[in-house]
UniProtKB/TrEMBL annotation, chain A:
The keyword Transport applies. This is NADH-quinone oxidoreductase subunit. It comes from Niastella yeongjuensis. Keywords: Membrane, NAD, Quinone, Transmembrane, Transmembrane helix, Transport. The chain crosses the membrane at residues 6-28, 58-79, 85-107. InterPro entries: NADH_UbQ/plastoQ_OxRdtase_su3, NDAH_ubi_oxred_su3_sf. It is an enzyme of class 7 (translocase). One of its GO terms (molecular function) is quinone binding. It is a multi-pass membrane protein. NDH-1 shuttles electrons from NADH, via FMN and iron-sulfur (Fe-S) centers, to quinones in the respiratory chain. It is found in: Cell membrane; Membrane. It catalyses: a quinone + NADH + 5 H(+)(in) = a quinol + NAD(+) + 4 H(+)(out). One of its GO terms (cellular component) is plasma membrane.
UniProtKB/TrEMBL annotation, chain B:
The lineage of its organism: Bacteria, Pseudomonadati, Bacteroidota, Chitinophagia, Chitinophagales. InterPro entries: 4Fe4S_Fe-S-bd, 4Fe4S_Fe_S_CS, NADH_quinone_OxRdtase_chainI. It comes from Niastella yeongjuensis. Keywords: 4Fe-4S, Cell membrane, Iron, Iron-sulfur, Membrane, Metal-binding, NAD, Quinone, Repeat, Translocase, Ubiquinone. Transmembrane segments: none annotated. This is NADH dehydrogenase. Residues 60-89, 103-132 form the 4Fe-4S ferredoxin-type domain. The keyword 4Fe-4S applies.
UniProtKB/TrEMBL annotation, chain D:
Keywords: NAD, Quinone, Translocase, Transport. It catalyses: a quinone + NADH + 5 H(+)(in) = a quinol + NAD(+) + 4 H(+)(out). GO terms for molecular function: NADH dehydrogenase (ubiquinone) activity; oxidoreductase activity, acting on NAD(P)H; quinone binding. It comes from the Bacteria. It is an enzyme of class 7 (translocase). Its EC number is 7.1.1.-. Belongs to the complex I 30 kDa subunit family. The keyword NAD applies. This is NADH-quinone oxidoreductase. It comes from Niastella yeongjuensis.
UniProtKB/TrEMBL annotation, chain E:
The gene is nuoH. The keyword Cell membrane applies. It comes from Niastella yeongjuensis. This is NADH-quinone oxidoreductase subunit H. Keywords: Cell membrane, Membrane, NAD, Quinone, Translocase, Transmembrane, Transmembrane helix, Ubiquinone. PANTHER family: NADH DEHYDROGENASE SUBUNIT 1 (PTHR11432), NADH-UBIQUINONE OXIDOREDUCTASE CHAIN 1 (PTHR11432:SF3).
Length: 116, 159, 390, 156, 358
């Protein structure tokens, strides 16, 4: 169909989701009380806000991912032409992976892959 | 190379242990005979409740509407939860003597823990445990029961 | 007659929330305080843990108890020596028989009562069946805590078989009240021996299936090995008993150390693992299943004839003094301490429940591990909350 | 070790201890002022009582002799020698205070909190003495004999 | 022979013949829209029911069997129930992001539908960079999950969302490498080309052992990417109650739930396309008769059969394995899957260049 498909699909998704939510809005007669708006914390009034700075090890993985994902983007066009280019393609990607893998080993040695 | 060898054998063992687990669940998937679900309200007719099952306390009455309870309150004393309350009255025997007898056997099912101590304590085996288990009602007051049937009297010969 | 319940004023404790970016109350920088329980899928029952996290690493675990506290010790002070036993089924409801047994033993100790051999064997058989049933439920729930749902149903299939046997002989499935001072309440059902033998035959095959599904599973092993390590010295200091202490290499099986009933006449092994981690505690329980089966196999065909109950007076009176009995439940050492003033009711009664002491080691064991590990540790502690709160 | 041997050991450090040998295990009563040092001696010296398996209190106020008496009862076992000892300490019921032993046996931390909660015994130097099973604003100590709760207690 | 291709072709011809081109295009758009929406609804109903039935059979239970014949209408009843539920928004939540998150997840799920070939010639948009498009759009859903977790003002949600973020981005790498290895063999990024290149046999069989390794890694990686057990740490209910959607209720929760199942369908469809030949029937060497019989089965059935087989596999995982811990999850990716998949890609390249594949 061409690029117009993306527009159609987006609209379809929005219609589908919004439709569901609207229908349920019509069907439901809600009630209001103070406890309903509390965040769920196993039946205990929540203490403090989650929106403060706290230490998680996820960011490091996000950064590592960024590096590798950018590399992966380069691999896609290469993959299409492998058969035409032949041996050189293999040599090139081997060098490329070697560099990438060295970096990966370095990160591993530095303890970046250890969960903290 | 020893590292590589260990690396590969680790992966092999991991995958084989996972496959073993999948074999177990998979084998149940293809054997629907193993299903053990009982479809409760539907199978009520052929459900077997063991005769010792302790569902609730009942008083046995024979065909003449006679029971064996002398109103001795042994069960009331044995009960840990004050489930049983026995109201007594005074009957006059044919000889003109006044005699203590059972008026109402009040039983609070909502307090009962089915511990069987009252049945054990009863000297005349007047009460026993029934095998019913569907006790839910809409109102708690419906759980308060009178165990002796209206108009029932003490069976002759029971002391 | 009906009790009024005080309704707690929830609003008074509600902290104002909103766009408060200043930082959590009572937490250091970078720390996050979260509540696990009383309404949480992993705390089986109403245990409330306040966890201080640094990232996903646990800094501190603080158990808050009392959601199911019924003051059973106070209740028992007004119940007679026959009556109070039934309440103890409600403490550790998964090993109700063994709790009742412990109380009956203590009363018998006070009365200096001789138990007929038939009753002794029946009691041991019931205890071991209960132990299997309890470990079954623990196994299923433990796997479920770690995210595998299916083992739970397999465990319940076997547990239901035991429950059916119990129902037939004792008249109830969970809170049996079958042990009475002097023996058991009534004789075993005629079908009992046959059904137990059938069960054991079925069960021996199923344990291998458990190993395939959980014990040898690489993910499960990774989740439990090296997690929640408790050293032998710590286990003793924290008063841990049962599989928790035995997983740390402490000999503490009351059945071996201070044998009661016929445990000194049957052959079985006390399972000791020395690693002290969650996997060791897991292995202890799984191996105990086989030992329980072994005990049952030895006794099921050798139930002596005779009375199932010793002759006792209608009203029991313990002499003045103090009596203590210890018994091995599925979770560890259960102690009953009765102080008698010579009356028909105990003057003071204390239940030393295994879960209470085991729980106190939780904070020590889980410091420095992940939230996911906490579930593995809690799973292997095998806590029953009513047993802790009493 | 037999009860006699344990007694001999204890007599060497506490000559004025009151012994009771009628029960299954040896019972010894020590003075409240000596309790902490005695506890340390129990744990570390000849007796090696490393396992505190039961810790509780008894309120004697309902008896004729003990109107103002509250005793703490400690049950010890040694995992080395497998002997058992019961230690009792008498407290003043109106102002019960005793040194904590939670630094010697870690399990005492929870047990002492429980006794504090239900009997109102104050454990001096306890790291975290709060109510354990009851709510923080609960009034009274339920396991004391004179405790009354008109709402939740049913008189049989 | 019955074929979806004929239907789409003739309906398109009829549209353009009857109306002028603008109206025809609009009508075509509306038809596509209705088709995908109904596909979404039907997939949700079928997959949830399938999951529950599969789980029940493995757990020696009967599963849903009360609503409709053999419980067929159970999920319809559930949907109705969820519609009747009140959709709560916590007071402290970031209301805009909180309400936006389910839309983002749904849009991401819907957009990946575009290049999937449901049957011969039945494809919404045969984009020439199909495979790249899929791996790009599939990472949009992580934004929705992060948004949901952050906006809820709930500690469990936040932790769940963080975990989910780290997990999805990590596993995307090894999934990407597995996909690239098929691209190397097929020499094209276009879905229809990849399917066409499997005319003589599926890549799973033609690519020797490296293709099988790539397939296994792909399945593991997509299981993790869709947050399915044993990688369901984002909603690990024994640790974080319900993870990132703890605070969601009613229809908004239903959308997350639906999106999860749609994502499973999509990744399995891509797996089926890349490794199992999409709608291509199974052909075995020179068995002419056998191949002929296989040709008679409609291509849409082939596609759905393969996809549902993969879905069943993923469900089988879920009902067998315990959950990994968060650090083990990442070390599995970074220490095992990623190095292996990189090495595997080199092997596949060698095979492709030497023409060793069948």
């Amino acid at each position: 169909m061409g690029p117009i498909a993306l527009l159609i699909l987006t609209i379809a998704a929005i219609l589908f989701s919004a439709g569901g939510i609207l229908v349920s809005k019509f069907l439901v007669r809600g009630s209001v009380n103070a406890q309903k708006g509390q965040p769920y914390e196993c039946g205990i009034p929540a203490e403090g806000s989650p929106w403060n700075q706290f230490n998680v090890g996820y960011y490091l993985f996000a950064l590592l991912f960024l590096i590798f994902d950018v590399e992966l983007i380069f691999v896609y066009p290469w993959a299409v032409v492998v058969k035409k280019v032949g041996w050189m393609a293999l040599v090139e990607i081997a060098i490329f992976f070697f560099i990438l893998f060295t970096g990966f080993l370095y990160a591993h040695k530095k303890g970046a892959l250890k969960w903290m | 190379m020893a590292f590589l060898k260990q690396y590969i054998s680790e992966i092999y063992q991991a995958v084989s242990s996972l496959l073993k687990g999948m074999k177990t669940t998979g084998s149940y998937f293809v054997r629907p005979k193993e299903i053990i679900t009982q479809q409760y309200p539907d199978n009520r007719a052929d459900m077997k409740i063991p005769e010792r099952f302790r569902g609730e306390v009942v008083m046995t009455h024979d065909e003449n509407n006679e029971h064996a309870c002398t109103g001795c309150t042994a069960c009331e004393l044995a009960c840990p939860n004050a489930t049983i309350k026995i109201v007594t009255k005074f009957d006059t025997t044919p000889e003109g003597k006044k005699k203590k007898a059972l008026d109402t056997f009040v039983y609070h099912l909502e307090l009962c823990t089915m511990c069987n101590l009252c049945v054990e304590a009863c000297p005349t085996s007047a009460i026993k445990m029934a095998q019913t288990f569907e006790h839910s009602v809409y109102d708690r007051s419906q759980l308060l029961k009178k165990l002796n049937k209206p108009g029932s009297k003490l069976r002759a010969g029971v002391e | 007659m009906y009790r009024e319940t005080k309704i707690l004023n929830v609003d008074s404790k509600v902290s104002p929330i909103g766009g408060d970016l200043e930082g959590a109350v009572g937490a250091d920088e970078g720390e996050l305080v979260i509540n696990v329980g009383p309404q949480h899928p992993a705390t089986h029952g109403v245990l409330h843990l306040v966890i201080t996290l640094q990232g996903e690493t646990i800094q501190k675990v603080e158990p808050h108890l009392g959601y199911i506290h019924r003051s059973i010790e106070k209740m028992c002070e007004s119940l007679s020596y026959r009556q109070f036993i039934y309440v103890t089924s409600r403490m550790d409801y998964l090993s109700a028989h063994i709790n009742n047994h412990g109380c009956a033993l203590c009363v018998e100790k006070g009365l200096q009562l001789e138990i007929p051999p038939r009753a002794q064997v029946i009691r041991v058989l019931m205890d071991e069946l209960t132990r299997i049933a309890s470990h079954e439920l623990w196994w299923g729930a433990m796997a479920m805590d770690l995210g595998a749902f299916t083992p739970f149903f397999y465990a319940f299939r076997e547990r239901e078989t035991i429950n059916d046997i119990m129902e037939e002989t004792c008249g109830a499935r969970l809170t049996m009240n079958y042990m009475v001072p002097g023996g058991v309440m009534y004789d075993i059902h005629p079908n009992f021996q046959k059904r137990v033998k059938d069960f054991i035959q079925l069960f021996n095959n199923k344990i291998d299936e458990y190993d395939d599904l959980v014990t040898n599973n690489i993910i499960f092993q990774n989740r439990t090995k090296g997690v929640g390590i408790l050293s032998a010295a710590d286990a003793i200091s924290y008063g841990c008993t049962g599989p928790v202490a035995r997983g740390s290499g402490v000999t503490c099986d009351i059945r071996k150390l201070y044998p009661y009933e016929v445990y000194d006449k049957v052959a079985f092994d006390e399972i000791i693992e020395t690693a002290g981690d969650s996997y060791a505690r897991y292995l202890v329980r799984i191996k105990e299943l086989r030992q329980s089966v072994r005990i049952i196999e030895q006794l099921i065909d050798n139930i002596p004839d005779g009375d199932f109950q010793a002759k006792t007076k209608a009203v029991l009176k313990l002499p003045r003094g103090e009596f203590y009995s210890r018994i091995e439940t599925a979770r560890g050492e259960f102690g009953v301490y009765i102080v008698s003033e010579g009356g028909t009711t105990p003057y003071r009664i204390k239940f030393r429940s295994p879960g209470f002491s085991n729980l106190s080691a939780l904070d020590h064991m889980s410091r420095g591990s992940k939230i996911g590990d906490l579930m593995a540790i809690m799973g292997t502690l095998d806590l029953v909350i009513p047993d802790i709160d009493r | 070790m037999t009860n006699g041997e344990i007694k001999q050991h204890i007599v060497t450090v506490r000559p004025n201890g009151v012994f009771d040998e009628t029960g299954e295990w040896l019972q010894v009563q020590v003075d409240i002022s000596e309790w902490k040092t005695f506890a340390q001696w129990l744990r570390n010296d000849a007796l090696q009582m490393d396992f505190l398996f039961c810790l509780t209190g008894i309120d004697w106020s309902a008896t004729a002799t003990g109107k103002t008496l509250l005793t703490m009862v400690y049950h010890f076992t040694s995992t080395v020698f497998r002997h058992t000892l019961v230690v009792k300490v008498k407290l003043d019921r109106n102002n019960p205070e005793i040194e904590t032993v939670s630094d010697i046996w870690r399990t005492a931390e929870f047990h002492e909190r429980e006794v504090f909660d239900l009997f109102g015994v104050k454990f001096l130097h306890h790291p975290d003495l709060r109510r354990l099973v009851l709510t923080d604003d609960f009034e009274g100590y339920p396991l004391r004999k004179d405790f009354e709760d008109p709402i939740n207690m049913i008189k049989l | 022979m019955f074929s979806l291709e004929n239907i789409t072709d003739s309906s398109q011809k009829w549209l353009y013949a009857t109306f002028n081109s603008t109206i025809a295009l609009v009508l075509q758009c509306v038809i596509v829209m209705l088709l995908v929406i109904s596909l979404f609804a039907v997939l949700g109903l079928v997959l949830v029911l399938m999951e529950r039935k599969v789980a029940a059979r493995m757990q020696i239970r009967l599963g849903p069997n009360r609503v409709g014949p053999k419980g067929m209408l159970q999920t319809a009843a559930d949907t109705l129930k969820l519609m009747m539920k009140e959709g709560l928004t916590p007071d402290g939540a970031d209301k805009f992001l909180f309400n936006l998150a389910p839309f983002v997840v749904m849009i991401a799920g819907m957009l990946i539908m575009a290049p999937i070939a449901f049957a011969k010639g039945f494809q919404i948009w045969d984009i020439n960079i199909g495979v790249l498009y899929v791996s790009a759009v599939s990472s949009v859903s992580v934004i929705g999950i992060l948004m949901a977790g952050w906006a809820s003002n709930n500690k469990y949600s936040l932790l769940g969302a963080m975990r989910s973020g780290a997990q999805i981005v990590s596993y995307e790498l090894s999934a990407g490498f597995s996909i690239v290895s098929i691209v190397v063999l097929a020499g094209s990024l276009q879905m229809s080309d990849i399917i066409a290149s499997q005319q003589t046999g599926w890549w799973l069989f033609r690519g020797h052992i490296p293709a099988i390794i790539a397939f296994v890694i792909f399945i593991i990686a997509v299981t993790a990417e869709t947050n399915r057990a044993p990688f369901d740490l984002a909603e690990a209910e024994s640790e974080l109650t319900a993870g990132f959607h703890t605070e969601y209720s009613g229809m908004k929760f239903a959308l997350f739930f639906l999106a999860e199942y749609i994502n499973i369908f999509i990744v399995c469809a891509i797996g089926a396309t890349l490794f199992l030949g999409g709608w291509m029937p199974l052909h075995v060497g020179h068995w002419k008769g056998f191949n002929h019989v296989m040709d008679y089965i409609p291509s849409s059935l082939w596609f759905l059969g393969k996809t549902f087989f993969l879905i069943f596999l993923i469900m089988w995982f879920r009902w067998t394995f315990p959950r990994l811990r968060v650090d083990q999850l990442l070390s599995l990716e970074w220490k095992y899957l990623l190095p292996i998949s990189m090495f595997n890609l080199l092997l596949i390249t060698l095979i492709a260049i030497m023409g060793w594949h069948f």
